[in-house]
Design brief:
Length: 143
């Protein structure tokens, strides 16, 4: 059930037409309009865990890697969050895990910026899986 929810969360957030058909991904091609939609993704984790727990989390990273290649952001922000009962170091470890996964897929390390806000911005009252997450956002205006 968790896998289905994770994949549905990503697909539901995609703008219309974002995954239909192939696009020219050469650097000279213009960035598709859906890239400017303010889209971001979330990857959820088990309590006190920083490793990807199933294939659906890896699928989200795969999809985000394709978005990076298509949309060419200037920076990819990776922010780790925790529930109140977890150590702050878990938030950073989660973000670093996602960074490593992007690097394994060929995303340049200089594009990836890790932050660990920790136990803030709860999406649900703690404890809840939605708080144990990494948020991935694209910045097109970074200096």
């Amino acid at each position: 059930m968790k896998r289905a929810l994770l994949i549905l969360a990503v697909i539901a957030a995609l703008p219309a037409g974002a995954i239909a058909g192939r696009r020219d991904l050469s650097p000279a091609s213009p960035r598709p309009a859906y890239c400017d939609s303010g889209y971001h993704a979330k990857v959820y984790f088990e309590t006190n865990q920083a490793e990807l727990s199933d294939s659906s989390a890896a699928a989200i990273v795969d999809l985000q890697t394709k978005w990076i290649a298509t949309c060419r952001p200037k920076r990819v922000m990776i922010a780790g969050f925790i529930d109140r009962n977890e150590r702050k170091s878990v938030a950073r470890a989660r973000a670093e895990t996602i960074k490593r996964e992007f690097q394994k897929r060929g995303v340049a390390a200089g594009l990836l910026h890790v932050d660990a806000p920790g136990a803030v911005n709860f999406l649900q009252p703690p404890p809840d899986v939605h708080n144990r997450r990494v948020e991935i956002t694209f910045d097109y205006h970074a200096a």
